Amino acid sequence: DGGITQSPKYLFRKEGQNVTLSCEQNLNHDAMYWYRQDPGQGLRLIYYSQIVNDFQKGDIAEGYSVSREKKESFPLTVTSAQKNPTAFYLCASRKLAGLYNEQFFGPGTRLTVL
Amino acid sequence: GQQLNQSPQSMFIQEGEDVSMNCTSSSIFNTWLWYKQDPGEGPVLLIALYKAGELTSNGRLTAQFGITRKDSFLNISASIPSDVGIYFCAGPDLNLNDMRFGAGTRLTVKP
């Protein structure tokens, strides 16, 4: 099956711990994105990457870090510096070249920091 | 990030009613996308529009790409309970290759 996978679906961590959220895609998409969604809110961009070994900060990058060592993978680390990490995290990807450049989302990871 | 104006913010309708929501931008877009998000899930792409004036249907859903390329609307006809969710509009920023999103329209359908 082609698509975007995120794991785990639910994640619990103690305050002060770093945690890494996984995102993998087998769509051969160039760009990958991480968004944060809070209850009743829209999508806020954390980081994005258009090519391997390169990534850009989004609107709310503070307290987060990413890597893009492989085209298929774009893990997000929520560090202890993130003041309010409890949220729903969405990974997305899309092809940049060509006319049809829809963005597709993974199922999301709900992170709860206790 | 979020830079599209989407309205209304929420809608409460009776089953069987039609629904209309729209999205506007201060800049032009070459693509308009409409997504639906169920609670606790990722957004799912409903309709993609690529040409100004284009009208596209997907079952009971119809979306149009505005002539000015700065707006789009989504209609849902004869709503059913499973239409409940949040609907987002989106479009790729021409300069940054980033995707811009509306804040979403939360739809509630009463049986």
Q: First CA to last CA of chain A: what distance? A: 35 Å
Secondary-structure element sequence of chain A?
Answer: EEEEEEEEEEE
Provide a count of the helices of chain B: 0
Number of strands of chain B: 11
Question: What integer value in Å does the Rg of chain A equal?
Answer: 13 Å
Largest interface: A-B, 30 and 24 residues
N-to-C CA distance of chain B? 35 Å
Instruction: Characterize the overall form of chain B.
Output: globular
Structural class, from helix and strand content of chain A? mainly beta
Helix-strand sequence of chain B: EEEEEEEEEEE
Radius of gyration of chain B: 13 Å
Query: What can be said about the biggest beta sheet of chain B?
Result: 6 strands, mixed
- Average the pLDDT over all residues of chain A and give the rounded result: 92
Uncertain runs of chain B are none
Which parts of chain A are unreliable, with pLDDT below 50 for 5 consecutive residues or more?
Answer: none
Give the strand content of chain A: over 45%
Features:
heterodimer, A: 11 strands, B: mainly beta, 6-stranded mixed beta sheet
Strand and helix layout:
The complex is a heterodimer of chains A (114) and B (111).
Chain A: E1 4-7, E2 10-13, E3 19-25, E4 31-37, E5 43-51, E6 54-57, E7 64-66, E8 76-78, E9 87-94, E10 103-105, E11 109-113
Parallel strand pairs in A: 2-11
Antiparallel strand pairs in A: 1-3, 3-8, 4-5, 4-9, 5-6, 7-8, 9-10, 9-11
Chain B: E1 5-7, E2 10-14, E3 19-24, E4 32-37, E5 44-49, E6 55-58, E7 61-65, E8 71-76, E9 85-92, E10 99-101, E11 105-110
Parallel strand pairs in B: 2-11
Antiparallel strand pairs in B: 1-3, 3-8, 4-5, 4-9, 6-7, 7-8, 9-10, 9-11
